[in-house]
Amino acid sequence: MALQRTFSIIKPDATKRNLTGKINALIEDAGLRIIAQKRIHMTRAQAETFYGVHRERPFFGELVDFMVSGPVVVQVLEGDDAIATYRKVMGATNPKDAEDGTIRKVFAESIEANSVHGSDAPETAEVEIAYFFAGLELVG
Ligand code: CMP
Q1: pTM score, two decimals?
Q2: What is the mean pLDDT of residues 84-106?
Q3: Burial of residue 57, with CB atoms counted within 10 A of its CB: 0-12 exposed, 13-18 middle, 19 or more buried
């Protein structure tokens, strides 16, 4: 399987509860390498642009409010089939539907405060990584 990169966000509900290390342990246990990571507090404009694809969805305003409510940790993960591997480790968007042992089943509070984001396809991973990181910051 090909080495691939994906983009991850540890969301405000998780940073608030000091869960960055525990989430990173699940990421690393799944064989993914954290090749870039920084803690930031997104501006409203950054969050609106990042989630632009959801602009017409009824939950967009609340999603943006939530994503700017506290610090987040943005990351680039590398590994075999990293996009699918990370989506499996994250679990379903709604923690009620997530499988046992997944990040969202273990830590998420709700469909909105669902602890992590991960890219859904190679094209989005490329755009999302480039939105937050310069090439020189990725140390594989
Ligand atoms: P994420 O993978 O970050 O992408 C969009 C986010 O919108 C999603 O995770 C959820 O946290 C959030 N969201 C809030 N409400 C909903 C909803 N009703 N359906 C889907 N996503 C939602």
Answers
A1: 0.98
A2: 98
A3: exposed
